[in-house]
Amino acid sequence: MEALSRSSTSVEKGIAELRTFRKVSREYFGAEAGGEYLKEGIFFAWIACVAAWPITVMMYELMRMTI
What we know:
Shape: elongated
Number of helices: 1
């Protein structure tokens, strides 16, 4: 019984430490996250456009050949 209570106490301590780490990381990255998400979103949109361009050209040429 004593071992069970010690293990549950260590689990609760681990969970409390995890919550503290999560809180610190949220506070640290919270201010920086907005600008980073915007930059990453713009970069992703640029990559998507670059990838879609050859596919669009290919579809146009296929449509032109069939007409």
